[in-house]
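Hey, can you fold this?
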Amino acid sequence: MSLRREIIDVSKELLLKEGFAKLSMRKIANRAGVTATSIYLYFKNKDELLLALVEESIERLTSALKGAIDPSADPVKQLEKLTRTYVDYALENPQEYEIIYMVRPEEMPKYPREKFQQVRDIYEMIASIIRSGIEKHVLDVDDPMISAYTIWAQLHGVVSVVLSKRLDTRIPKQPFLDHAIDQIIHGFIIQRTPA
């Protein structure tokens, strides 16, 4: 394993355990068994290290979502597959997922403008499917980007309930996830009245 990879892995572990405010280059160095100076060969400060962690996590989530898209499928089926992939990825990779969202905005270093495109790619994927659904008259949406963001926000809420262990113990997890995804998607489908 490369030293850079080890620094990232140790930083991720400490960030999740102690939070960004308590994360320090000295702690990372101690845990990795190197000098703090060694870390500065790869990252100029703690902010740059955090951005690298977030960027890597976003890349992995985006890659999983892109791999789930089947352009030949019906737009509703594509949305269902994308939302299930999002939820599955978050629950199977909770550390990666939490890295993206755990740092409060006031703690977050200024995110370079060009990096925002990676985050926007997720919404764009959803919005593109929604546009296709509008063209095929199966989805009823006024603004595809707002709807894409709404879908993401709902999925994030569902995932957060499960990851934070706040799901009511009387509610089984898988039926809750299935029902939530179904409700999210079907809120956008044009309801056809029988002839």
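Oh, and this one too while you're at it.
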Amino acid sequence: MTNFPNCPKCNSAYTYADGSGFVCPECGYEWTLESSIENNEDTKVVKDAYGNVLNDGDTVTIIKDLKVKGSSSSIKIGTKVRNIRLIEGDHDIDCKIDGFGGMQLKSEFVKKA
């Protein structure tokens, strides 16, 4: 009996081969072996403007005045942002900035403090 990989979605062991891919009969998820290998690779590494790797909980400093959409004021250069969270997407930092509240930033406009 051939051992097939567990389902990446529901971790079911009852998967079977279907052509060049695999199928999970419990949740109906279909995938190829190449896509399961790609999903197991390291997650995206977020770097600041100077190439330093950023992690959740880091403190960063703004390196450029940033206009805030919907506000007449801007975030000034040198503003420290504490306890950042890394997220997927174009704006890859989620944080709270004193005086502005919750906001998302691009990592290219910050440096690790």
